[in-house]
Amino acid sequence: MTQARLQFGAPWSAAEVISRGDKPPKSVHATELGVLFNGDCLSVLPHIKNESVDTIFADPPFNLGKEYGETVNDGRPDDEYLAWSRKWIDESVRIIQPGGTLFLYNIPRWNIPLGAYLIERGLLFRNWIAVNIKFGLPIPKRIYPSHYSLLYFTKGKAKTFRSIRTPIETCRHCGKEIKDYGGHRDAMNPKGVNLTDVWNDIPPVRHWKFKSKKRKANQLSTKLVRRCLELSSRPGDLVLDPFGGSGTTYDVCEHTSRHWIGIEVEKESCDVIIERLENGNLHHHPLHDHIEEEEQITDYVEER
């Protein structure tokens, strides 16, 4: 099963947002909701107007020496990586609207100093979210790392915060509930439990129906991105992802009626993103979160 896209009219023009500087960048793809730029984020971000973006979701390279393509250096010295990160963070802080949100997805090693820098830049720390996904094999003489860090910051008081309830966890083998909730199960909200800062329900993207066979690098689960966007934005808001990768953020925006600006430095990855958006043939991990504000379950619409 694949997900049906929402239908809109004329393509969205980013001219009201992308017009800063003498030579604004040219997009390589546009939809009714968003635009994609092929280039270095440090070359594109300066052209975006001040305080124009509602939510930024950033999933930069983790500097672990992986191969992303000829134009990506994922093996920088520590100081150089942090200096590069501070540059795109500075631009991100500039373009976020007052009350807007920045999510930064990285490994704890980098999110500790980068989180401190975001505080230094005046953003308001809200949460360190532990996304429980196993890295792979245990590392000798170290505690087994089993989570990624998702930093959640806002530019002052959040202008959008949509309370989320998640389904009560059950055993995938027997179907019974994992916790007894101290004997107070009957008193719990039937819509689920309040979202916590530990996310145990984000699946890894392994099966080919969820990812492109043309891109070997890791890809994000649509469930992770969807939850972040539901938490921090509403339909019609503008979302920016400066590290396009496989295009997960843009795909989620297309399904949830968010406008989006995408940036990806690798031409080959841009081709993968464009194919994904045009074909719509990649499945999404189901999301059964309950959005309190809207009094509805936010499942994807599926075609059978």
Spans of at least 5 consecutive residues with low confidence? 1-8, 294-304
| Amount of helix | 10-25%
- Trace the largest sheet across and list its strands: 2-3-12-11-4-5-7-6-10
User: What is the rounded Rg?
Assistant: 19 Å
CATH superfamily membership: Vaccinia Virus protein VP39
Q: Please provide the ordered H/E string of secondary-structure elements.
A: EEEHEHEHEEEEEHEHEHEEE
Biggest beta sheet attributes: 9 strands, mixed
At CATH level 3, the topology is: Rossmann fold
Overall shape: globular
What is the CATH domain class?
Alpha Beta
Number of strands: 15
Distance between the termini: 6 Å
- Taken together, the total number of domains comes to 1
Note the beta-strand portion.
Answer: 15-25%
Mean pLDDT: 87
Could you please describe the fold and organization of this structure?
This protein has 304 residues and is of the alpha/beta class. The chain has a single domain (2-303), classed as Vaccinia Virus protein VP39 (Rossmann fold, 3-Layer(aba) Sandwich), CATH 3.40.50. Helix content is 22%, strand content 22%. The strands form three sheets. It has a nine-stranded mixed beta sheet, with helices on both faces. Strand 4 (53-58), helix 2 (78-95) and strand 5 (96-106) form a beta-alpha-beta unit. The radius of gyration is 19 Å and the shape is globular.
List keywords for this structure.
single chain, 304 residues, alpha/beta, Rossmann fold, 9-stranded mixed sheet, 6 helices, 22% strand, globular
